[in-house]
Amino acid sequence: MAVVTTIERISKYVDQDVTIKGWLFNKRSSGKIQFLQIRDGSGFIQGVVVKNDVDPEIFERCKTITQESSIVVTGCVRADDRAPSGFELTVKDVEVVAIAQEYPISLKEHGTDFLMDHRHLWIRTPKQHAVLRIRDEINRAIRDFFHERDFVLVEPPIITPASCEGTTELFEIDYFGQNAYLSQTGQLYAEAAAMAFGKVYSFGPTFRAEKSKTRKHLNEFWMVEPEMAYVDFEGNLKIQEDMVEYIVQRVLENRKMELKTLERNTESLEKVKAPFPRITYTDAVKLLQDNGFQFEWGDDFGAPHETFIAEQYEKPVFITHFPTKMKAFYMQPDPDNPEVILGADLIAPEGYGEIIGGSQRIHDLDLILHKLEEEKLPKEIYEWYIDLRRYGSVPHSGYGLGLERTVAWLCGIDHIRQTIPFARTLNRVYP
Ligand code: 4AD
Ligand code: MG
Predict the structure, then answer these.
(1) End-of-domain residue from the set 98, 131, 157
(2) Residue 229 · residue 198 · CB < 8 Å
(3) How many angstroms separate the alpha carbon of residue 346 from the centre of ligand 2?
């Protein structure tokens, strides 16, 4: 009896018979031999059907199998250095579960709009499959990183009564006759949780009604947001660089096949080891000005600026001490120079831009009240947040890492819409 297994576990069964439950990805034939490209979700493998070695009925049946038909294949596993996976299957039997109709995604080139319209099918193809497997690895690495360090996972609400990050860019919903919003960040709730559990992280979808059509923006994206009591600006950067190193090294270790499928040059990723370089916002402005950029202190970086700054380094770089006026109300001003905040953005190499935004938070009651007033934020709705400064307030810090931008960087792909199973962008809510 053949063992039922999956393609990713096939190395354990060399020279043994196995059964794989999957789909026909592609097929070619040379008369007496048919080559079936089989996928089962865990990987891709070539099945070889030799006319003289199988039942004539099975050989004929294989000819009728169309692209993406579901099939159960039994065969003997052979080690083969030429195969991308290192293995091949000498097919002995093929059972057809369902013959697929003519498949819309052929193996030739298609336009991006067509592929995005068929995203539900596109994710079956090797490159998209590799991207989403890497996404899964990053997800797991993040959870392992925090749990190994005793962080507690807390889930902030997705429906919020007020803006959590800025007043624009909100998706408004009708909450039984009251205005409510889809959350832009879980941070404020994570701060409450940090005062209850010490070290916490939230990891969930966030929503921004940004009308930007760039290759770095989604309207629904996932963010991991740690928040830590008794941690200051320095401690905050330390955990960020440790986490990013951990994620990158895990993907390099466990997703070699997928990185190869994506033709990702991994040399730059190997270098991602803590500590990371830092530059202050003020020095970054000088750097840009010295290199011919029209840029004033107080301006926000655009993609060309971020890319230029990142190119000065081999690793991700922290840009620290942004102008207080540019950043969110909750960021702690630097006591030595209140014009700038004790926060940083982490810029990925190779033009992938900002992957993390974070800061120490204001813990002083009067200062947070003053900031809310300055930003004209409705105090009543933030009462609970102000309470955190009334009852046992401590210096605390946190940050948010954008999952999709991290996936894009590690995969080396040019557009963020391919880094999430079903992207939500300015012009797309289908499928
Ligand atoms: O810098 P942001 O806006 O920071 C916050 O929301 C903080 N409250 C996080 C915190 O301190 N807990 O967003 C954090 C990260 C960015 O660095 C970026 O990686 C990602 O979220 N991001 C987006 N990713 C995809 N599409 C968008 N529209 C994004 N906006 C932000
Ligand atoms: Mg930011």
Answers:
(1) 98
(2) yes
(3) 9
Q: What is the pLDDT of residues 388-416, one digit of tens each?
A: 999 999 999 999 999 999 999 999 999 99
Looking at all shown ligands, the one closest to residue 398's CA atom is: 1
Residue 15 sits in which domain range? 3-98
ipTM over cut 0.85: yes
Q: Is residue 216 part of a domain?
A: yes
Which tens digit of pLDDT belongs to each residue from 235-291? 999 999 999 999 999 999 999 999 999 999 999 999 999 999 999 999 999 999 999
Q: How far is the CA of 335 from the centre of ligand 1 (A)?
A: 25
Residues with CB under 6 A from ligand 1: 165, 185, 187, 208, 210, 217-218, 221, 223, 225, 354-358, 398-400, 402, 404-405
Q: CATH code at 76?
A: 2.40.50.140
Query: Among residues 47, 67, 98, which one ends one of the domains?
Result: 98
Residue nearest to atom 31 of ligand 1 (CA): 402
What residue owns the CA closest to ligand 1's atom 29?
217
CB atoms within 10 A of CB 56: 9
184 and 49 in one domain? no
Q: Is the pTM of this model over 0.90?
A: yes
On whether both 79 and 150 belong to a single domain, the answer is no
Query: Which residues, other chains included, contact 202 with Cβ-Cβ below 8 Å and sequence gap of 6+?
Result: 153, 154, 155, 156, 186, 189, 190, 193, 224, 225, 227
